[in-house]
Amino acid sequence: MWLPDRAKLIKVSLSSNGEDVETPWAEDSGPAPGPAGAHYARLGNVPFLHAKPTYGDVIVVVPDGEGVLSWDSGGLPYERIGERIIEDGGRWVMVLDYVLLEVGGDAQQAFSALDIAGERRDIAVEGCYGPKSERPGRAYLAVPNHLGADAVLAYLEGQRLPMTLSLVHPVDDEGE
Questions:
Q1: Residue 153 Cα to chain centre, angstroms
Q2: Helix (H, G, I), strand (E, B) or coil at 146
Q3: Which domains does the chain have, with CATH numbers?
Q4: Is 37 helix (H, G, I), strand (E, B) or coil?
Q5: Number of Cβ atoms within 10 Å of the Cβ of 120
Q6: Which pLDDT tens digit goes with each residue over 52-102?
Q7: Cα–Cα distance between 46 and 147 in angstroms, integer?
Q8: What is the reported pTM?
């Protein structure tokens, strides 16, 4: 699995027509053609508000009015978002909810087990929030294109993780 060079990490801003702003880490990959200050950036996180770009994708970021290196989808529908990605990192986003098997179990230890299991299959795992008594935890995964949701779930369930997993995204045609 590709890992970003920590010496080149920068924060970038992602948005869609100025909405759904989030600031993942990215690896600065050098100057890009375009407006002054434009840079290539390879995402080093799995964004929560944008299915694409995601971990490993290369985009062009340009300084906004405040100097923040930014990327905006321009409102393109998901089917056309590739037009705004310079290099597709070959991953799609899967969202899972998880509940600890043991009441009062160690949530950090459980999430670490999920993260390690993901690394073994070249799956980048990001924690959105941990489990609480009133709601499950949520994890975002950047899954290599050659793996489907069923294969990922089967693999993770076979890892004897200290949690139960529920698929949030993608949902099937019947919304299950």
A1: 17
A2: coil
A3: 6-84 (2.30.30), 91-169 (3.30.70.1110)
A4: coil
A5: 10
A6: 999 999 999 999 999 999 999 999 999 999 999 999 999 999 999 999 998
A7: 17
A8: 0.90
